[in-house]
Write a structure and sequence with these properties.
7 strands, about 210 residues, seven-stranded antiparallel β-sheet
């Protein structure tokens, strides 16, 4: 009987101690007070990416877009990021902007322009097309660029390659270019894009939420 009374007394003391601890808040209450839940805001992956684009690799549903790029620039960019092994993450988004064309000619008739285009293509020059300049005169286009600086760079590069006479035309609408979109890219890919950015005049990198598909 004495043992039972001692056990009951100990139980009451333990209950009293727990009650006092709870009335003072206890550990759970202290944690809540420290966290201040009313001041906590959960950020979406897109908001986190906007705050720290370099950490996009640790988030989900975040896309990095790089552009605008001409067809020749797009091909070059894809070859430069190919060693990263991220082809499955890359898609192309077509965009329409205004731009500066690089033009060679005019040639007296379309057949003459097409012959010149064939010669250029045989030399490995890409991003070519035919343009009607009016009055039976045709030219060969060698790419269109968002900035005049980039167009002049293309003309200079062609001159160094032996293609003489390429000139930059007036700014015109209806220029179709591309952006490369990387979905949930790893950090090395983001770093590589930032390294390449200065070598593609007139392009920029944007980080944000991915467009919904399907």
């Amino acid at each position: 009987m004495r043992i039972i009374l001692i056990l009951v007394l100990l139980a009451n003391l333990a209950l009293f101690a727990l009650t006092r601890l709870d009335s003072q808040g206890g550990e759970p209450q202290r944690i809540i007070d420290q966290l201040q839940p009313d001041k906590i805001k959960l950020l979406s992956p897109q908001e986190m990416a906007a705050l720290a684009p370099g950490k996009a690799a640790s988030l989900s549903d975040v896309c990095v877009e790089w552009g605008p790029l001409s067809e020749s620039e797009r091909a070059r960019a894809l070859s430069e990021i190919a060693p990263l092994g991220i082809n499955a993450l890359v898609s192309t988004r077509r965009i329409e902007t205004e731009g500066y064309p690089v033009v060679l000619g005019g040639f007296p008739g379309r057949p003459a322009a097409e012959r010149r285009l064939g010669e250029l293509r045989a030399r490995g020059i890409s991003d070519l097309g035919i343009v009607d300049q009016g009055g039976g005169v045709f030219g060969v286009t060698l790419g269109s660029f968002r900035s005049e600086q980039a167009a002049n760079g293309r003309a200079d590069a062609l001159a160094q390659a032996g293609v003489i006479g390429a000139r930059v035309g007036a700014r015109r609408p209806g220029l179709v270019q591309s952006s490369l979109v990387l979905r949930d890219p790893p950090q090395p890919a983001v770093a590589r894009l930032r390294e390449l950015l200065p070598t593609y005049a007139g392009t920029e990198i944007k980080v944000g939420g991915c467009e919904r598909t399907g």
